[in-house]
Amino acid sequence: MSIFLVGLVLFVGIHSVYIVAPRVREAAIARIGYNPWRGIYSLVSLAGLVLLIYGYGLARQDPVQLFEPPPWARDFAFVVMAVALPLLVASFFPVATRIGRFVRHPMLMSVTLWSVAHALAIGTLAGVLLSAVFFIWTLAARFSLIARPMTASSTAPPEPMNDWIAVAIGLAVWAALLFVLHDWLIGMPLL
Fold first, then answer.
1. What is the pLDDT of residue 93?
2. How far are the Cα atoms of 25, 73, 114, 179 from residue 15, in angstroms, in the given order?
């Protein structure tokens, strides 16, 4: 569990610098430059992600069950993830999508939905902890974005085709996870 916790702290911690200490980020960029900061940020994120995944795998070998998931939680997670994955894909388009304009921060909404669905469907200490930390992080990120001064956003009109592409790719990833990838990547078959 300790490897999992270190990974969680590193991954969420580096992603929280801009939320809890934006001046630290600005000072680091001023001192070492933007690209070196991005390099350090990326390395810490990657190290945290690797430790998080590896540690979660170890924690799953000897799980501490907090609660028995309700019978409907699995189906609820399937439906919620069919919404969350297109939102995630929509967040990567350089030109705004109508989805992004409507939701404002599609990646944060995607992670929020993922965390709620998985917290209800898993029920183990590691699973609930992972989901709860990401849920709290998304709320903090949303409040941080509200509190920041507004910056000029893209004035380019949304490209409708990008919405369809985001939905198609998101649903394709959802289907792949449902039928094959979740078992292969996570070791937990969904069907």
1. 83
2. 11, 29, 17, 31
